[in-house]
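Case study 2.
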Amino acid sequence: MNTATVPRNAASPAVSPRHLPSATTEPAWVKWTLIGIALAFLTLFLFVPLAIVFAEAFKKGVGVYLAAITDPDALSAIKLTFIAAAISVPMNLVFGIAAAWCIAKFEFRGKNVLLTLIDLPFSVSPVISGLIYVLIFGLQGWWGEWLRDHDLKVIFAVPGIVLATVFVTFPFVARELIPLMQAQGTEQEEAARVLGANGWQIFRRITLPNVKWALLYGVILCNARAMGEFGAVSVVSGHIRGQTNTMPLHIEILYNEYQFAAAFAVASLLAGLALVTLVLKYLVERRVRAQKKSAEGRSE
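Prediction:
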């Protein structure tokens, strides 16, 4: 009896994706149970508190709400919050781009040390960083006497709040750019250099356009943290009403004084900013993921 032989290099019949084995073997009820637990957790710890903030803010009417957010102390806190963010975010933008470009595009001694220092605010409590600034710039600190003699105020003034905000937010931009720049490699920059481009032209026309979405993503995260920072700013501000209180500090004072409607009214502004930041983060995050996939494809 003759049997037909199939050549070894014969193509196997295509397998429909529907017949491929599933990555998990758990039954459907396990999947839906886990999804239900996740949704219940988000509802209990995210959606309900957020709804309560807005409900309490408008509980006594729109008139009370508007009076709370237009109070001179509230306006001062809002203004100071935006000033701190407006100064700290551009500073961290410049630092983040420089640090990421240096780390991702060059090899040098001490590179790992620089990476560790960038991550320092993630591991140090903001309260500790505030105390360090008090130790350095306070009246009894290392530079306190010199600052007093020259009539310069850092602690319990706007400069101290800005310094504390810069410290707690400076890793965000750099940490978004470094992985992307490393994935992109240096081939395009080297090709531009061979063609005669100088360093500024390479940065402006090649490096910066390739990381623009990751850069915007880092700026959004940095700005969100700057506006919501409490610990470090609380230590260096002195809680001077109408002068050194940011929005989080002003909310704390109102709540401690049992002015709940006013506290929730100002808190709703922060919550609104957080929601806007979340939407922007989601939109930019999609572009960042696409950019990283494209960079990884080129590197392969």
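The radius of gyration is 26 Å.
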